[in-house]
Amino acid sequence: MTFPDGASMLESINNGGRGTLMETMGITVTEASADRVVATMPVAGNTQPYGLLHGGASCVLAETLGSIASALHAGPDNLVFGVEINASHHRSATEGIVTGVAQPLHRGRTMATYDVEITDEQGRRLCTSRITCAIRPAR
Q1: Residues 64-108: pLDDT tens digits?
Q2: CB 29, CB 14: distance < 8 Å
Q3: Residue 121: CB partners within 8 Å, gap ≥ 6?
Q4: Residue 106: is it exposed, middle or buried by C-beta count within 10 angstroms (0-12/13-18/19+)?
Q5: Could you give the residue numbers annotated as active site?
Q6: How many angstroms separate the CA atoms of 109 and 117, rounded?
Q7: How far apart are CA 50 and CA 52, in angstroms?
Q8: Nearest-10 Cα torsion for 31, 121, 61, 73
Q9: Which of 93, 110, 113, 92 is nearest to 102 (CA)?
Q10: CA–CA separation, 124 vs 73, rounded Å?
């Protein structure tokens, strides 16, 4: 799939993140479809005062993935916006790169819900999150 500017979908998603929280957090999308969105994020720069990955950073990664997946499901004639997110933090990370994977739990006409698993470089689950996005027609 290509976009009008000739960029691939991944290039368009990542370029669209410039100047946003996605860029600030260092999030890079590596795979994207309505069925699965994968992205990485560095721990460095996204920690709380004790040097651990900030729980809010994990939520930002999860919301980014769920929102992208919901938008791909909804299509270009619709807008999506998060209406609920939750996260369970299972273990900490102090360095390296974390990876988030979003997969659908429900994809309807007006709502989409995605499960997001965040793991460290050893494949250990750090966080489990669920995000629900509303889908509305673009005006």
Answers
A1: 999 999 999 999 999 999 999 999 999 999 999 999 999 999 999
A2: yes
A3: 96, 97, 98, 99
A4: exposed
A5: 63
A6: 24
A7: 6
A8: 30
A9: 113
A10: 28
